[in-house]
Design goal:
22 helices, 2% strand, 534 residues, single chain, mainly alpha, two-stranded antiparallel sheet, 4 strands
Length: 534
């Protein structure tokens, strides 16, 4: 007979506990298949490489779904940060240039029971590779290397030095990993992406468990290469750094490897009209969208370029409609100034004196796919690379391909009833690309600003985090800051990084303190300038 132990937690429940124990003992004395009875025959009892791949891919593609009524707010944090949108429900720290306490958890995941910086989702990478066969090894090894590089790239960009070499070691996890310098982390990320491309190139088995590309390895090769270009452009201030070969790697990838060829190649999460799978802003996830408005800065930029995406991004302001304007007029749209004191923002919101998000985000359940990496974004990276002389070809040609891809994406995912009478068409796209205000001029700084501005527009509700990294690196777009309302301790600028999570002091103090001393002379605050930006 099997033995079952019960541990009573409170005296008040001891009687019930005795009855339960007696029932369980009776059941186990009468049957020898208790374990079999308590096994869910429909659930897998052992992991496979494909199930682990699905789980880890989900970790980089998802947004926080743990609270349906807050997911809309959390989804928008990155867009409040870069002043595309304004929140009127409560004072939002990132809108006023201060990272909220929850920004770490939303973007990089909660701490687990061991020391990490949001690396916990990658613990299964080695397990996944260990479960492969000779036929599937290259497929999953390439995938594991990409996932590690992708995840830790963003973490180092937001923090600075992080553990990399000792960060993820499967079952033999190091509880107190040393912090590698950001320079070494970036070098390893680039090397791992090169290795990932090599493994995918040799692989013969599809990536089973891949819900984005259905296992197609040609797509994954494009993802790896396009992402490596992203990493390299982030290193623009280090283009001459010995050993990194920033310019040379960039040119080699463009010359010899497959890259995204259209929006169909985007690494994107596609939503469906099914419970729990709606777009992040859909009404089914709560009503916080009522408190979200486009910023005056972003609306003014779209008007300046006469960009008809405005009609697909926003709704006309009701007071302007009441004055007789129609929804197909640029004049019917206005944003709320993100630099205003919060009480003034609330007043404007209460009076509806601003343009809210277009109804397609709220009521069109499939919305638009959420791209983590995309064709439009890649073309703007190539335009900047050409402008910097890293590759041949015309910066203007790449730049216009990026604009065209962004416009096409919006056209493809805006049903006509949500275009406010100004749908984007192929004819409009051709005409838009010829507008004088859009043309590059031959001046490096002026052209860089235009490239980054158009990349900014194309990233509306897409490419989370990357716009902030571009702004921090280049100073473009020129996001207005009001020192009198800024919450940053340095009130005339945005914060430059995240502070390390407080629990690191509890679990990995010595290594963290050494890293902070090395980088910032011992001061871990949000306004310190990391190696990447020097």
């Amino acid at each position: 007979m099997k033995k079952i132990k019960l541990f009573a937690g409170r005296k008040s429940g001891s009687f019930t506990g005795c009855i339960l124990a007696a029932c369980l003992l009776l059941c186990t004395s009468c049957t020898g298949d208790f374990d079999d009875i308590n096994t869910n025959r429909d659930a897998p009892t052992t992991a496979t490489a494909s199930t682990l791949a699905t789980s880890m891919l989900g970790n980089i593609m998802r947004y926080n779904l743990s609270d349906l009524h807050s997911v809309t707010r959390f989804f928008m944090e990155d867009y409040f940060l870069v002043k595309m949108a304004v929140y009127s429900g409560e004072q939002c720290g990132v809108q006023y240039n201060k990272f909220d306490d929850n920004y770490f958890m939303y973007n990089f995941g909660k701490r687990s029971d061991y020391v990490d910086l949001g690396f916990s989702s990658l613990r299964n990478a080695d397990k996944m590779v260990a479960l492969t066969t000779d036929q599937t090894y290259d497929t999953y090894k390439g995938f594991a290397l990409f996932l590690k590089a992708y995840q830790l790239y963003y973490i180092t960009c937001f923090y600075g030095d992080i553990p990399y070499g000792e960060a993820i070691q499967g079952e033999t996890l190091t509880l107190t990993p040393k912090y590698d310098t950001q320079r070494d982390v970036m070098a390893q990320i680039l090397d791992d992406l090169d290795l990932a491309y090599g493994h995918f190139s040799r692989a013969t088995a599809p990536l089973s468990g891949d819900f984005v590309f259905d296992g197609n390895l040609e797509n994954w090769k494009k993802v790896v290469n396009s992402f490596e270009l992203n990493v390299l452009i982030t290193l623009s201030k280090k283009e001459s750094e010995a050993g990194l070969r920033v310019k040379e790697r960039f040119a080699e990838i463009v010359a010899s490897r497959p890259l995204f060829a259209s929006n169909a190649d985007n690494l994107a999460l596609t939503f469906i009209d099914q419970g729990g799978m709606y777009h992040a802003l859909n009404e089914a996830r709560g009503n916080l969208y009522y408190f979200m408005w486009l910023s005056d800065y972003f609306v003014s930029m779209l008007k300046r370029y006469e960009d008809c995406r405005l009609f697909s991004f926003a709704k006309p302001a009701q007071p302007l409609l009441d004055e007789g304007l129609t929804g197909d007029s640029f004049d019917a749209y206005t944003g709320i100034d993100h630099t205003l004191p919060f009480n003034e923002t609330q007043t404007l919101a209460d009076e509806k004196r601003g343009s809210q998000l277009n109804d397609r985000y709220i009521f069109y359940r499939v919305g638009e796919p959420l791209a983590k990496l995309g064709y439009a974004q890649m073309n703007f990276v190539l335009a900047e690379g050409a402008l910097r002389g890293w590759i041949g070809g015309s910066a203007s040609d790449y730049y216009k391909k990026g604009i065209e891809a962004g416009l096409t994406f919006t056209m493809q995912h805006t049903p006509s009833q949500y275009s406010n009478g100004r749908p984007i068409t192929a004819d409009y796209i051709r005409e838009h690309l010829e507008k004088p205000a859009l043309q590059l001029t031959g001046s490096f700084e002026a052209d860089l600003e235009k490239i980054i501005e158009q990349k900014y527009i194309a990233s509306f509700l897409q490419y989370q985090r990357d716009t902030y990294l571009d702004y921090r690196r280049t100073g473009y777009p020129r996001l207005p800051i009001n020192p009198s309302t800024s919450l940053n301790l340095v009130p005339d600028r945005m914060q430059m990084r995240l502070k390390y999570p407080a629990n690191e002091l509890s679990y990995n103090r010595a290594n963290l303190e050494e890293a902070v001393q090395r980088q910032f002379s011992g001061f871990d605050d949000e306004n310190q300038i990391m190696w990447l930006l020097k």
